[in-house]
Design a protein that fits this description.
Blueprint lengths: L1 E5 L5 E4 L3 E5 L17 E9 L4 E7 L3 E8 L1 E6 L4 E5 L2 E6 L4 E7 L5 E8 L9 E6 L9 E6 L7 E2 L5 E7 L4 E5 L5 E9 L2 E3 L2 E3 L4 E5 L3 E6 L3 E9 L5
Parallel strand pairs: 13-14
Antiparallel strand pairs: 1-20, 2-3, 3-4, 4-11, 5-10, 6-9, 6-11, 7-8, 7-10, 9-12, 13-15, 15-22, 16-21, 17-20, 17-22, 18-19, 18-21
């Protein structure tokens, strides 16, 4: 088993006034050659957006983009004709493919917190697509809830990559083994809230921990916790 530990306060940080963002991996003006990606997991941004503010319309290409609101409501719009609100309890996915234009703006006067995640796809120049889903209605306690996979007919949303995302809402002292779905994949564990343990590594809130070269590992909650597990291929395409 190989591992990498990223303490929350070791992340890059950008304060744009209306936007405050912590970058687990190199992004925009934050560049760390030792933090470029975890396998095909390219971006993990922990964003705070002031009320009434947001990201104006801008382009993306050949990237799988996932947004998970943690607090508040985001208003989405894009050049494919999609518009609406994503809120806590939802997951949003966009396959940028040949190119998209979109905006994400705070829909209220209250702050919004959300995770912005980019995954490098296993195919390029695909037809752009958009999807969002309420994952709260199928929320489970003390188990892994799959919220993303490579399969359109499986639980959660899907992307163009052999990746599986799970939410773990564990009570204090509950533990469970996570089994890798595909050989060659690793898992990046991100503690949204609470405190957890993987092997001998203690993880506090907003800590990240990557695990690979293993078939399974045990995740234990040391407090009531909410944890995001992002399983992705460790080898980059091409």
């Amino acid at each position: 088993m190989k591992t990498v530990y990223h303490k929350s306060d070791s992340r890059g940080y950008a304060n744009h006034g209306w936007l405050k963002s912590h970058h687990t991996f190199s992004f925009a003006n934050y560049h760390n050659p030792e933090r470029m990606h975890f396998g095909v997991l390219r971006v993990l941004n922990d964003d705070f957006v002031e009320g009434g503010m947001g990201f104006g319309r801008h382009p993306h290409r050949d990237m799988e983009i996932i947004s998970i609101p943690l607090e508040g409501d985001l208003r989405h719009g894009d050049n494919m004709g999609n518009s609406g609100i994503i809120k806590k309890g939802d997951i949003q996915v966009m396959s940028a493919g040949t190119g998209i234009m979109h905006s994400e703006e705070n829909a209220t006067e209250q702050p919004v917190k959300f995770l912005q995640i980019w995954v490098i796809p296993n195919k390029t120049d695909v037809t752009p697509r958009y999807d969002q889903m309420d994952i709260e209605e199928k929320s489970v306690q003390n188990d892994f809830q799959q919220i993303l996979s490579p399969n359109a007919d499986d639980a959660g949303v899907w992307i163009h990559q052999d990746a599986w995302f799970n939410l773990a809402k564990f009570d204090k002292d509950f533990s469970k083994d996570y089994n890798i779905n595909k050989s060659g994949n690793g898992v990046y564990v991100f503690v949204i809230k609470g405190k957890a343990k993987v092997g001998d590594q203690i993880l506090d809130e907003r800590d990240g921990f990557g695990i690979w070269d293993t078939e399974s590992f045990n995740l234990e909650a040391l407090e009531n916790s909410e944890i995001l597990l992002m399983e992705v291929p460790m080898e980059l395409p091409g």
